[in-house]
Amino acid sequence: MASPGITVRLLGDPSSEPARAVPHVGQRYQELRRQCLEQRRLFTDPSFDAVPSSLGYWELGLGSENIKGLEWKRPQEICRSPKFIEEDMSRTDVKQGKLSDCWFLAAAASLTLYPRLMQRVVPRGQSFAREDYAGIFHFQFWQYGQWVDVVVDDRLPVKNGELVFVHSCQSDEFWMPLLEKAYAKLNGSYEAINGGYMNEAFVDLTGGVGETYQLKMPNPELFKVIRAALTKRSLMGAHIKITRREDMEGQTPEGLVKGHAYSITAVRKLDHGGKKLKLLRLRNPWGKVEWNGRWSDNSPLWAGLVPQTSLQVRKEDGEFWMQMDDFLRYFDALEICSLTPDLLEEEKGVGWNVHAFQGRWSTGFTAGGCRSSGLRDGFWMNPQYHVRLLEADEADLRKQRLDPSCTLLVSLMQKDRRQDRKRGKDFLPIGFEILKMPKEVTNEREVVISLSPWAGLPSQLAAGRLIRSG
């Protein structure tokens, strides 16, 4: 018999099913583009106009010193022959501007390594060719269970003739500045995307499920985790935590940037002096400022490799190799985004089931606080989602393990918090716990954990944080 208390019964979210992208604010790209071509005019976006409110509300708001002298210009007013994409989209196309959105840019740079994923975010068929050009572009982002198609015009913030925010190494390439503008529009303004964690961007760019590893907690299997994640085409990033706001983007003597997001793009094992070394390749979205320690671009250690390797690239492009133990010493968190089945190419062994649910904490009904707070007695009031894992992982079955595991990934998201920043609101420190139920109640169809049993149940996982990074 179920324990007394509140039961929250979840209904499957229909938007979690694969579907066409929904037009953001009702703007349909093909229809708007056709109208502009027929009327021989360039598109101007009334829902994200070239006005101060599109830039921001405080640091980039009306009257701010930061936006003095800023203009909005179309690419053909910035360079002679603009191109949407120069050859192919590459991680080196992404160079951060005067906006603290490295978390988004590093995620976008990682995504370029997987063209099939990038084509979902940056739809094909867009260009500045005269016969196709109407000053309108579109991009797609995943939002709370569905893909959203965001339309933008190509007016970009410029100061002294140069782009203010993200730009490409090729001065005539504009896919990345326009992608950044579309993401700013989705979140309300450019300033709204100041600061964040890479997993937030990874999820918005893929619809995948994010998880975080704290690097100061020993994990002998971490290199295997990273290598397996890259093999599965998961997206990854890392950052160095800060404790004071003034430390944001401060540089260490080793050439690393605090509070800054780096993408992880490759791993290698090398034989050096009779030892097996583990190396990671990272990239700074600034496109400059690199690690200067062991195995950096100019490290003498490369000369000792026999045979010589092509891994070493002496170029100030923001990309560098780093030994695993140095990575663990200087970085604080690793973020991994695992992709869902609709984003993975069909292959044997992929057996994910995906479910999305929506809900809320309501004061007096389903808001019970956390166990570590003074509201512990009300913890049972929180929404309880009961999950039974019935199928073992195929890898464990193949190895005929006596106690096989079943992988479960859980992601918790907050809606529309960036749009509310202009009203003084921000992300809340929310979280969840996964608890192992006693065997005697696992066969019950309806189980509610009430007040007393919480204290005796071991927490298998606790996750909670305030999403904020530089």
Automatic annotation (TrEMBL):
Q: Where is the Calpain catalytic domain?
A: 42-340
Q: One of this protein's GO BP terms?
A: proteolysis
One of the record's GO cellular component terms: cytoplasm
Alphabetized Pfam families for the sequence: Calpain_III, Peptidase_C2
Q: Does the keyword Protease apply?
A: yes
Residues in coiled coil: none
Q: Which domain of life is it from?
A: Eukaryota
Q: Where are the transmembrane segments?
A: none
Gene3D superfamilies tied to this protein: 2.60.120.380, Cysteine proteinases
Q: Which CDD domains match?
A: CysPc (cd00044)
Tell me which residues this entry annotates as catalytic.
102, 260, 284
Q: Name one GO molecular function term.
A: calcium-dependent cysteine-type endopeptidase activity
Matching entries from InterPro entries are given as: Calpain_cysteine_protease, Calpain_domain_III, Calpain_III, Calpain_III_sf, Papain-like_cys_pep_sf, Peptidase_C2_calpain_cat
Ordered alphabetically, the record's keywords are: Hydrolase, Protease, Thiol protease
Q: Does the keyword Cell membrane apply?
A: no
Tell me its family: Belongs to the peptidase C2 family.
Protein name according to UniProt: Ras-related protein Rab-26-like
Annotated source species:
Platysternon megacephalum
Task: Specify the taxonomic lineage.
Answer: Eukaryota, Metazoa, Chordata, Craniata, Vertebrata
